[in-house]
């Protein structure tokens, strides 16, 4: 059968149908530089505080090139931002083998539809293009959890509730009947909340255990 391909002996000279040939080429570059400081302060044997700040600058650039038979490419994109983020956490140890903690963190992500597909919302028939003039995405992370060791620290268990919220998520597209490059239509939010459980350790000389499960519920507020 001439149309079948032998995966163990493929034909590297086989021609590619025109419909499968690339019609555009996109290049993405993201350069980051950061200065950060973090520290942990032990107030007493039961209480610890961890925190820090991160000053970060990123430069994101996207260039498009039209190939033979392709449509007109989108506009090139270049964006540079300076942002301040960080995190703060508190740990309480009610017993030597267990702890309870709460943490909050905030960070910044570059806008750009080719950088993270999950940051794109299409509310119309438009093609997600570049997001010129869009604000950076701001991510807020909240988490509370607990960690416990059993069997003389041979088994470690964890449980955590988390809530992540992305703000300033760009929405791009074309209005009905509109042609040309997609434009910035506004901003939305994305929320992910969930529960994570895990366990790992060596419970006997012959048995090692490890495992975990995550339950998540996501929502787009566009």
Top keywords for this entry?
222 residues, mainly beta, Maltoporin, Chain A, 8-stranded antiparallel beta sheet, 0% helix, extended, Beta-barrel_TonB, Beta-barrel_TonB_sf, tonb box
Give a summary of the structure in a few sentences:
This protein is an all-beta fold and 222 residues long. The chain has strands at residues 24-44, 47-66, 77-95, 98-109, 137-150, 155-173, 183-202, 208-221. Helices cover 0% and strands 63% of the residues.
* Residue-averaged pLDDT: 81
* Low-confidence sequence ranges: 113-130
Proportion of helical residues: under 10%
- Could you say what the CATH topology is called? Maltoporin, Chain A
**Tally of individual helices:** 0
Order of helices and strands: EEEEEEEE
- The separation of the N and C termini measures 51 Å
CATH superfamily grouping: TonB-dependent receptor, beta-barrel domain
Look at the helices and sheets and give the structural class. Answer: mainly beta
**β-strand amount:** over 45%
Query: In CATH terms, what is the architecture?
Result: Beta Barrel
CATH class: Mainly Beta
Spatial strand order of the main sheet: 1-2-3-4-5-6-7-8
Organism: Pseudogymnoascus destructans (strain ATCC MYA-4855 / 20631-21) (Bat white-nose syndrome fungus)
Membrane topology: Multi-pass membrane protein
Domain TonB-dependent receptor-like beta-barrel: 18-217
InterPro entries: Beta-barrel_TonB, Beta-barrel_TonB_sf, TonB-dep_rcpt-like
């Amino acid at each position: 059968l001439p149309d079948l391909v032998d995966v163990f002996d493929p034909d590297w000279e086989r021609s590619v149908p025109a419909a499968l040939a690339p019609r555009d080429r996109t290049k993405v570059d993201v350069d980051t530089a950061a200065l950060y400081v973090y520290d942990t302060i032990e107030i007493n044997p039961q209480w610890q505080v961890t925190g820090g700040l991160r000053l970060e600058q990123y430069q994101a650039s996207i260039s498009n090139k039209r190939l033979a038979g392709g449509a007109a490419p989108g506009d090139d994109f270049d964006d540079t931002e300076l942002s301040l983020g960080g995190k703060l956490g508190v740990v309480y140890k009610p017993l030597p083998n267990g702890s309870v903690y709460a943490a909050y963190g905030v960070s910044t992500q570059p806008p750009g539809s080719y950088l993270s597909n999950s940051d794109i919302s299409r509310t119309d028939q438009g093609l997600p293009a570049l997001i010129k003039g869009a604000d950076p995405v701001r991510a807020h992370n909240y988490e509370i959890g607990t960690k416990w060791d059993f069997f003389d620290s041979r088994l470690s268990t964890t449980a955590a509730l988390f809530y992540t919220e992305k703000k300033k998520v760009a929405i791009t597209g074309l209005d009905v009947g509109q042609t040309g490059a997609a434009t910035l239509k506004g901003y939305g939010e994305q929320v992910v909340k969930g529960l994570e459980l895990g366990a790992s350790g060596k419970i006997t000389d012959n048995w090692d255990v490890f495992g975990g499960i995550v339950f998540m519920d996501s929502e787009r507020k566009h």
